[in-house]
Amino acid sequence: MEFYVFSNCLGVFVFDESFKVVDKTDISPKDFDAISKSKWIETEKNFLEKLAKQKDSKIFFAGFKSEKIENVEITYESDKLTNILKHFKSREFFTKFYDVNLLQTKLKVKESVKEDLLLIQSIHNIEELDKAANILSKRLREWYELYNPEFSRSIADHRLFVRNVIANTKEDLLKKINLPKEKSMGADLANDDYAPIKSLATEIETLFTLRDTQVVYVEQLTEKYCPNLKIEAGALIAAKLISLAGSFKKLAQLPSSTIQLLGAEKALFRHMKTGAKPPKYGILMQHPAVANAEKAEKGKAARHLAQKIAVGARRDYFGKLENR
User: Fold this and answer.
1) Which positions ≥6 away from 209 have C-beta within 8 Å?
2) Which CATH number is 245-322 given?
3) Which of 21, 197, 294, 308 has the smallest number of CB atoms closer than 10 Å to its CB?
4) Architecture of the 115-223 domain
């Protein structure tokens, strides 16, 4: 007598030679996420061992993965599978397949949230905060210069400028630059007119403070998730490289020559299209080793840094895989 053991996401089914179900084990779709695939493998093995003990039985198996069992033939013959699959064409099975596959998809989406996705979101948030803070700081300077233009132009750092506006009066700031009040070109604003300016400065300082907390989080996450990459590139550049590559896995698989040009894609495509000079570095320009190098040595410094980053990323990513 022939038996066919078939597995899918609904369970393990045993068909006889006329392709009727003679035994099965299935689960409720709501319990799928609590049961691993090893449950099916164990059930398959039990069925196969049970059937193998029957006299004159011939068993065909088409399932997930099972240990080799005597008198069991692994088969994927199309005609046999076609007859088996006909059993699952009913509306009842369609609903079950839908429910289980929906649960599987939700589980996979849930499991797909890894540390590199958290890093990507964090570095995007930092970049957006930088952009917002810079735009608002420029607006604050333009507005504040109606009141105290001399001090605004004496200090270039946005954050330091914002802190001074919050903490000091116009007279105090003019004293810092050794300018008498009567020589200032700024208008004398009433308190009601100056209050919105100071309020904007306070909100901008809040953005800078939020950025600081995000930077600390990125540093902690990179230290835990990719310490070697952090050592070579720094926390923020490491996160930006992972973001530009798409994931930590993709970054670890990239050659150093590609890592060197991450962030310079527009210049690279312009070179390919128009024959302009090719870029020598991308986001790595923000690293002190490249930024502080002599102009003629920046390309060499970027290439050397990219090689070290590639090695560090591979040690972190593939080292974790080996330890699983």
Assistant:
1) none
2) 1.10.246.90
3) 294
4) Orthogonal Bundle (1.10)
Q: What are the tens digits of pLDDT across the range 116-173?
A: 999 999 999 999 999 999 999 999 999 999 999 999 989 999 999 999 999 999 999 9
Per-residue burial over 71-87, b if 16 or more Cβ lie within 10 Å, else e, is ebeeeeeeebeeebeee
Can you tell me the distance from the alpha carbon of 228 to that of 314, in angstroms, rounded to the nearest whole number?
9
Domain boundaries, the chain: 2-111, 115-223, 245-322
Length of the chain: 324
Backbone angles phi, psi at 59, to 5 degrees: -115, 135
CA distance to 7, 31, 195, 318, per residue, from 95 (Å): 17, 15, 63, 40
Tens of pLDDT, residues 168-208:
999 999 999 999 888 889 898 999 999 999 999 999 999 99
Task: Please give the helix or strand (H or E) that residue 11 lies within, else none.
Answer: strand 11-15
Judge contact between 177 and 183, C-beta under 8 A: no
Fold of the domain spanning 2-111:
Nucleotidyltransferase; domain 5 (3.30.420)
**Residue pair 122/218 in contact by the 8 Å Cβ criterion:** yes
